[in-house]
Amino acid sequence: MLNEKKSTLLKLNLGCGRNIKSGWVNVDREEKENKLDIICDLAKEFPFKDNSCQYIYNEHFIEHLDWLSGLRFLKNCHRCLKPGGVLRLVFPDFKKVFKAYLENDADFFKLVGERLNGADYEYYRSVYRQPAKIRRERNDNPPPAWHLSRRHEDRERLERRARKFKYLIEYVDWFTHQFGEHQCLYDEESMAGILKEIGFKQVKISKFKPQIDFSNQGGRRASCYIEAVK
Ligand SMILES: C[S@@+](CC[C@H](N)C(=O)[O-])C[C@H]1O[C@@H](n2cnc3c(N)ncnc32)[C@H](O)[C@@H]1O
């Protein structure tokens, strides 16, 4: 449970990764480059009081939970929001991804492809090959521990990323599985239905809002935005 000081901060940024929001309670299960307010596994714990939050935000997180954990997570969001509080969810728009694939729309995957085959590829390749160099270069801003680890599983996690994407189906695979990290697929219709069943009063399809959402242009194009009011 949050201590008194933290419990006065009523906006939660859950599964925040590197995207820390100032003035919010930023939660993730692993610390990356920025300091988190809470480290916890949101599939197992939800350390917030009933009716205590004004706003819950999560971007590209819910698909990382399996179906049952995701449902429990959404129910917990509902439980912890005050009446009138808002849950904003951003997640991959699998309808658009599959449509683009079936229509052979290479342009749809272009921006994501530029990142995966560009900055991401260069970074993971160099970490995979020379972890010590990366450790020295990024002394003040170290990468996550598993990037530098010699454990077989961690080396394989890196090796999966240190590759180039060539075929459209590989992008579909990346959206769907993200190196084994994605565990459940949603679309606007299914998520809106689940949120209504849980008891949210208003559920609205939203769109990218630069004042709150982080997604880069490639991610934005392939994301669903949904807001639900308790
Ligand atoms: C794709 S990243 C999204 C990060 C950020 N919200 C963004 O949009 O860039 C997914 C994040 O969810 C976190 N995550 C995955 N499963 C989690 C869990 N069970 N509990 C807490 N955080 C989790 C990961 O550590 C990762 O930072």
TrEMBL record:
Span of domain Methyltransferase type: 27-87
Pfam families in the cross-refs: Methyltransf_11
Gene Ontology molecular function: S-adenosylmethionine-dependent methyltransferase activity
Bilayer-spanning residue ranges: none
Signal peptide bounds: none
Name of the featured protein: Methyltransferase type 11 domain-containing protein
